[in-house]
Specification:
- The protein is mainly beta and about 110 residues long.
- About 0% of the residues lie in helices and about 50% in strands.
- The protein has no helices and 11 strands.
- The chain is globular.
Length: about 110
């Protein structure tokens, strides 16, 4: 089982960024997938989730700006981030089944400055 994130980088406030997570080693369509972020000295935050049936949920801090999606055929999870703010700066992780025996990717850094 492997999750590999990509797409992070350094952007300016107001810019957009798209994160991707490539999954392998399991039946991707069967699982709830979550984007989690953590900034230094701050608590972990669940940014967005998408269930196996496609139902999505978002943290209030990103609602209306971020969009989570998945492509089951390509086994890819995505996070479209618009109107980025400095407070969005964090390491972003792709997580399988956050609430039950979670599997984490290695993370991708997003810096808004």
């Amino acid at each position: 089982v492997q999750l590999v994130e990509s797409g992070g980088g350094l952007v300016q406030p107001g810019d957009s960024l798209r994160l991707s997570c490539a999954a392998s080693g399991f039946t991707f369509s069967d699982y709830t997938m979550t984007w989690v972020r953590q900034a230094p000295g701050q608590e972990r935050e669940e940014v967005a989730s998408i269930d196996d049936d496609g139902t999505t949920s978002y943290a209030d801090s990103v609602k209306g700006r971020f969009t989570i999606s998945k492509d089951n055929a390509k086994k890819t999870l995505s996070l479209e981030m618009n109107s980025l703010k400095p407070e969005d700066t964090a390491m972003y992780y792709c997580v399988r089944s956050l609430a039950d025996l979670p599997i984490w990717g290695q993370g991708t850094q997003v810096t808004v400055s």
